[in-house]
Amino acid sequence: DEMTPEEREFQERIGRGEKIEPKEWMPEGYRKTLIRQIGQHAHSEIVGQLPEGNWITRAPTLERKAILLAKVQDEAGHGLYLYSAVETLGVSRDELLAMLHSGKMKYSSIFNYPTLNWADIGAVGWLVDGAAIMNQVQLQKTSYGPYSRAMIRICKEESFHQRQGYDIMMKMAFGNPAQKAMAQDALSRFWYPSLMMFGPSDKDSVHSAQSMAWKIKINTNDELRQKFVDQTVPQAKYLGLTIPDENLKWNEDKGGYDFSEPDWSEFFDVIAGNGPCNRERMNARVKAWEDGAWFRDGLVAHAEKTASRRAA
Ligand code: FAQ
Q1: Which of 28, 186, 255, 278 could form a disulfide with 119 if both were Cys (CB 3.0 to 4.6 A apart)?
Q2: Do 202 and 166 form a contact (C-beta atoms < 8 A)?
């Protein structure tokens, strides 16, 4: 056993299912992994507003517009909540944003795909939020207290998001033939990118083993992907839509569906920055940061003025 006494005690606490809290001792690797994962998660919520924000002004009814607006605002809230969780690990929000903007930190691959029409907003809610919850439900049990508590609240809102997406899909799939064709096209384009959200297959997942030993992750990427497929196939059937996979087949022995893997070379290409919308997304975030400079400067100036008045 190469563990130091501190590391051994830490691992025992993990084993007993105790939550680790901000000011407590933790291995540097544990801290670094959390900063990477929660930070990436926070960035995903913020960048994830862009594909849907694109359709707020073009939602088909006032009611759909109000719902979408609320949903996109929820994502902003999740992002800020998660940035606060990362800050408890000793990194500031400004540092995290600088790392996002310089390409040093990632965000979810899925948000580098375009939303071409209204049916895509249904598919994003149904599949993308569906995949997000599948991953986040297990993260409610993650060992780091602030992350675990954030996940409980976020999952509740995410469930509502998924249902609003499915509701759009029902309207489209049970609508006229042109609407049904749009719903099918959206499913066909978003299926494999949604499967990619769970990360590379277990054999290529560099972080899974250590993250699971620390109970940062509770399930492997492939376990969650399988659960997502099993949950989603009957939902597609109900809509009368076809999942674009000829190998999709119920497997009695494993009690789940067999399915085709996504094109992993596409996945690695997207996370390397070469997806269809990577540049557009990053430009939008950097522009938002730069356009907000006057406001941040104003806040700082005001804070300094109030502080000096108090001192006088
Ligand atoms: N995209 O060794 P692993 C949402 C990277 S939901 C980009 O398996 P790990 C809600 C990974 O970082 C989406 N990169 O990594 C919403 C690593 O690279 P690195 C956000 C990915 O961490 C809905 C490398 O590949 N949810 O925002 C992806 O153990 C609608 C090797 O991978 C979360 O972030 C990917 N899909 O497992 C908002 C959940 N997959 O960092 C708006 C929390 C892998 O060494 C609208 N995160 N990579 O350079 C996790 O659960 C984990 O981080 C995984 C990856 C499962 C994503």
Answers
A1: 186
A2: no
Q: What is the maximum alpha-carbon separation in the chain?
A: 77
Which amino acid makes up residue 304? E
Mean pLDDT confidence for 80-90? 97
Helix (H) or strand (E) holding 270: none
How far is C-alpha 25 from the chain's CA centre? Answer: 28
Q: Which of 43, 54, 112, 271 to mutate to test the pocket of ligand 1 (most atoms within 8 A of CB)?
A: 271
Res 173: pLDDT = 98
Q: What is the C-alpha to C-alpha distance for residues 16 and 27, in angstroms, rounded to an integer?
A: 17
The pLDDT value recorded for residue 1 is 62
The question of ipTM being above 0.95 is answered as yes
Residue nearest to atom 25 of ligand 1 (CA): 199
Whether 134 lines ligand 1, by a CB cut-off of 6 Å, is: no
Q: What's 208's DSSP letter?
A: H
Picking from 247, 296, 250, 284, the residue whose alpha carbon sits closest to that of residue 92 is 296
Contact assessment for residue 20 and residue 144, using Cβ atoms and an 8 Å cutoff: yes
| C-beta separation of 268 from 258 below 8 A | no
Instruction: Please tell me the pTM assigned to this model.
Output: 0.96
> With helix as H, strand as E and coil as C, how does 64-117 read?
HHHHHHHHHHHHHHHHHHHHHHHHCCCCCHHHHHHHHHCCCCCCCHHHHCCCCC
